[in-house]
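User: Please fill in residues for this 80-position structure.
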């Protein structure tokens, strides 16, 4: 199993994914073509990242920073 760790950035539109090899990639909610430069993340990891974006953007604007500040990194295990 490979482990990926997902951590919120300091703003709502950024998350960091630590890859199994220890390197870290930045994932944003942008759909401007920059997402094509990311390494191919497994579907389970993409789903977890998208779920986090969905959660934070569903919150009222003034609650988002509190969510970010109190969030803890979590792991997604992927069977390859």
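Assistant: Residues filled in for all 80 positions:
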């Amino acid at each position: 199993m490979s482990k990926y760790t997902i951590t919120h950035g300091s703003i709502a539109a950024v998350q960091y994914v630590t890859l199994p090899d220890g390197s870290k990639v930045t994932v944003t909610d942008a759909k401007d073509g920059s997402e094509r430069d990311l390494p191919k993340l497994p579907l389970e990891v993409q789903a977890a990242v998208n779920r986090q974006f969905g959660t934070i953007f569903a919150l009222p604007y003034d609650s988002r920073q509190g969510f970010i500040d109190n969030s803890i990194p979590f792991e997604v295990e992927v069977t390859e």
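For context: The chain has a mean pLDDT of 91.
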